[in-house]
Amino acid sequence: MLGVLRGKVACRGNPARGLEQGIRVLASRAFSSSAKQMTVRDALNSALDEEMSADPKVFLMGEEISKGLLEKYGPERVLDTPITEAGFAGIGVGAAYYGLRPVIEFMTFNFSMQAIDHIINSAAKSNYMSAGQISVPIVFRGPNGAAAGVGAQHSQCYAAWYGSIPGLKVLTPYSSEDARGLLKAAIRDPDPVVFLENELLYGESFPISAEALDSSFCLPIGKAKIEREGKDVTITAFSKMVGYALQAAEILAKDGISAEVINLRSIRPLDRATINASVRKTNRLVTLEEGFPQHGVGAEICASVLEDSFEYLDAAVERIAGADVPMPYAANLERMAVPQVEDIVRAAKRTCYRSTSLAATA
User: Fold this and answer.
1) Catalytic status, residue 85
2) Catalytic member of 50, 154, 199, 289
3) 204 annotated active-site
4) What pTM was computed for the model?
5) φ and ψ at 252, to 5 degrees?
6) Reaction(s) catalyzed by this protein (predicted)?
7) Cβ neighbourhood burial of 29 (10 Å; 0-12, 13-18, 19+)
């Protein structure tokens, strides 16, 4: 079903299973038990609140408007629109031309296809085509990729789609710290930013540092984070797939394989330096994403490593992605169409020339 891929990944039929347990276990090892916890949803909401409070030019418009902000800032700065993506995205781009800082919220990024002309032709290209005279400080945000049981029309990952467009910045948060720091960076940035969240992570709690809770906290755009250091194989992932990669690394450690997990955070610009430095250390690479395999994020990472670090590779690069089919609706088929933890484990073992069983590893 996956053709040349050799794997699949995600938490589908029951999104509360597996990923959440792995997140809690791994998080508890990195932070003390007394560390403050925050859900991704609250992290995003707090970032929006703080940026709106700090800058009167920031306003929200779209669907699924963030909780509590309408009551606090009023209907002139929080506009809950009808389901008219082309309309409110176009208005948002025009407002950005005027010098405001709109945050455009899609109920799901699958609906952004209705507004793709404004995102690409009106927003992404304006700075270049105006010789730098027009900046477009706008953020397009919302759930990206598959949720659970929502069918093919609502289950696509747009990281590679928007990541291929000059003029856009594309961010993909995983943890609560990612969500706060990257959304603040996106709102402050002078260029259009596509901010790809994950619906299945909204309710997940992550440890968060005092530094990340400060109103001045901001993460750099274009910088990946090494979530787990290792020496035998590099695993790149983004959004909810980072949690699966960390779970796979735990399993691999029991078999004596030390996996380094890189949370990409930013798809465009891509932190090629961190990826290549890791591969030069581990000499092996597994790329992980839930999007389609052809022309995917993993394909771009493979190209970068082959161009810059080919002589360091001791094994063929393994790409793990979703199946090259529209997302099935049935839960059992849906699970088969996206990567799973055991696929990552098998791929990593192949790169290390360890024998693998066809039976589930995890």
Assistant:
1) yes
2) 154
3) no
4) 0.88
5) -60, -35
6) N(6)-[(R)-lipoyl]-L-lysyl-[protein] + pyruvate + H(+) = N(6)-[(R)-S(8)-acetyldihydrolipoyl]-L-lysyl-[protein] + CO2
7) exposed
